[in-house]
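To fix ideas, we give here one paired sequence and structure record:
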Amino acid sequence: MSEMPSAASSEHRSPGPAAAPLGRGAGPDRRAEETGNGAVEDSAVAVSVIELSKIFRLDASGAKTAKERLLHPSRGSNSKFTALEQVSFDVVQGETFGVLGHNGSGKSTLLKLMAGIMRPTAGRVLVRGRLAALLELGAGFHPDLTGRENIYLNGSILGLDRNYVRAAFNDIVDFAELHQFIDVQVKHYSSGMRARLGFSVATHLEPDVLLIDEVLAVGDETFRNKCMERVHKFRSMGRTMIIVSHSADTVRQLCSRAAVLDQGRLIHLGPADDAIVAYRKALNARQQRLADKPPGAARPAKSPVVIESAHLIDAIEAAGTSTPPRHRATSNKDLVVKPGTPVTAVVTISVHDATVPVRLRITLRTPEGLLLINRATSGLLGGGSSLDLPEGRHEASFHFGPLPLRDGQYLIDITAETPDGGHQFARRAGLAGFSVEAGGRGLGLLAVPVTAELVTPKPTPRRRADDRREAGERAPTSVP
C-alpha cells in the first residue's frame, strides 16, 4: 500500500496488475486492524482510511496577500471549519464501496484526500495499486491540449507507459464518441464532450482503485446508461470502486457496503441497505431542523390559501381477526410501512379568500425526483373543478390504495393552484413522507409477486435399429 498523497511513489508506476505490499510510502506499516475494522485482513485491503481529519481555516479579513495580512493583522478574524473528523474505514480489494451524506457532509473532501489532491490535517490514507479519481468529469484535462494529448497525459499521471495507453486509445475514443473532435483542443469541447472523455479515460485505463464523485448523475440518458454498463463491467473485472452519490438506488444497486457522513463525522458503516436507512434518518433529521421556523414565517403575505401541514396514516390489518383496519397516525416523515399498505395523507389548509377558486394537487415521488403519482382534487371530488370552501382551516384527505413499492423513502408534495393549474398559490415540497421496508434485498421500485417456471421438453427416445428395419427405414452406415 502506498500512502497518499504521494501519488508518484513507485507502486503507482507499474502498468501491471500486481499490488504493492502494505506499508509502502511514508510512515511505518499500518495493519487493517488498526483502523477499527479488524475483520478485514491486511492482504485484502485496497484502501485504508485511518483517523482522517481535515480542518480549513476561514479568513474573514479579506486580505489576499501576505503583505496585507502583516499590515492589517487585526482586520477580521480567522475561524476554523472541520470538514472531516477522525474518519476511519477499510475498503476490500474488488469491493464497490459507497459514500452517502447530505450536501456539505464532507464526502467530496474525503475523496480529494483519498486521491491525494489535498493533504489531511491529521490521519492518513493507504492505497494499494494505481488510483484514478473521477471527482469532476473533465477535471485534470489541460484545456490547451487536444483530446488525444490529454488521453496520453492522463495515462502518464497514472504511471502507464505509452504502449499501454495506445492499446486502449481506440476503445476510449469509441466510448466517448469523439472521433471527429479527438484532435481539437479540449477548451473547445462542450461540457458533455468533456464528461464523456473524462469517464472514458478513467475507466478504460483500468486503475486498481477508482474514485467516482457524483459523476453517474450527469449527461443525457444514453450516456448515463453507458456509464452504468461500464461500471458493471469494471466491477466484474474485480476492480475496487468508491462511489459518492446522492442516489440511494445507485448505492443499493452497485455497492455492497457504504459509509454515511454527517457534518464531517462517520455516523454509520455497514451493508448498503442499512447505510441507506441511516442516511435517510440523518437527512430527515436535518430537514426537520431546517423546517423548525416560527409559524407563518414562510407564508405568502396575500395568498388566498395557505398549506399548513400534512401527516400520514397507514391502515394495518389486525392479524388473525376479521376486524377492520386500525389507523395509526404518525409524524409527517416517520411512517414506516410494508409493501402493499394503504396510506392516507391528511392535509391542513387555511383559506383566506373564499372568492378565489382553488384546487389541491398531491404528488408522490422519490427523493431523486422520480414522479410516481400526480392527482388533483378536481379529478377526485365531485361538484366542480374548484373547492368551494369558506374562510378558515380545513382538512383534505388523500387515500392511496395498496402501494406495491420496494424499500426506499417516498415524499409527498402539496400544491394549491388555480383550477386549470396555470398558477400556484402555494407549494410545500416534501411536506410529508414515508419509508417502505420490504424485508428483503431487491432492486427496482415495485414489490410485486413474481413467479418463474422452467419448462424443459422431454427428450425424444432414440429408436433402435430393429424398429427402423420394421418401419422399412435404412440404417445409417459408417464411413471408414
